[in-house]
From TrEMBL:
It comes from the Bacteria. Signal peptide: none annotated. InterPro entries: MESH1 (IPR052194). It comes from Pseudomonas congelans. PANTHER family: GUANOSINE-3',5'-BIS(DIPHOSPHATE) 3'-PYROPHOSPHOHYDROLASE MESH1 (PTHR46246:SF1). GO terms for molecular function: guanosine-3',5'-bis(diphosphate) 3'-diphosphatase activity. This is HD domain protein.
Length: 197
């Protein structure tokens, strides 16, 4: 990892909470880590997805707290780096602190062996408001459209999983809870009921 991603040990060089410097640092780290990856069913770079998740989080925080923003926002930008890239939890902790690295780790499905949806959602719910808020934002973002390659059954099962996320994590933020409910209804109408495949 290039040196400019690493946090200085000099406290005067630490980013201020929620500063543009912290956001940009996490954005650059995520963009570098996901280089070459594309969004599912799209030619868009994967960094588009993490930017959309961070955008959901920022707007949600304006309405209702998503927890400590200087933890939640980098977590939103970095939420898939442990699951989808070679970045390690130690590298994240060095660059962004233990709280962010821990939140990203709890959002990473590949760290749960054997994988269980129930354990995964319970782990997020018990971890932190920040992690739960990021997962809600992630699912809201993923429900903006359905990959063209997904059959109707896959689209419907994704909606069922979304309802499980809502039930497990909706308590973390009322604004995001309602946003997910509304987004699920839109997805149902456009990409399940309105799909002929």
């Amino acid at each position: 990892m290039p040196d400019f991603y690493r946090v200085s040990r000099n406290p005067t060089h630490m980013p201020k909470p929620c500063s543009q410097q912290l956001y940009n640092k996490a954005w650059l780290f995520a963009s570098h880590a996901h280089v070459g990856q594309k969004m599912t069913g799209s030619d868009l770079p994967y960094a588009t997805h993490v930017a959309m998740v961070a955008n959901e989080l920022i707007f949600a925080h304006r309405e209702e707290s998503v927890g400590v923003l200087e933890v939640a926002l980098p977590t939103a930008l970095l939420h898939d780096v442990l699951e989808d890239t070679p970045v390690t939890q130690d590298e994240l902790a060095e660059a962004f602190g233990v709280e962010v690295a821990s939140a990203v780790a709890c959002l990473s499905k590949n760290l749960i062996v054997p994988f269980s949806e129930a354990l995964y959602f319970a782990g997020i719910a018990s971890h932190s408001k920040e992690a739960a808020s990021v997962k809600l934002c992630d699912r809201i973002t993923n429900l903006q459209s359905a990959p063209a390659t997904w059959k109707k059954a896959k689209r419907a099962s994704y909606l069922v999983e979304s309802a499980q996320i809502l039930a497990a994590l909706g308590h973390a933020n009322g604004y995001l809870r309602q946003r997910l409910i509304d987004t699920m209804a839109r997805y149902q109408a456009l990409y399940v009921d309105g799909f002929e495949g």
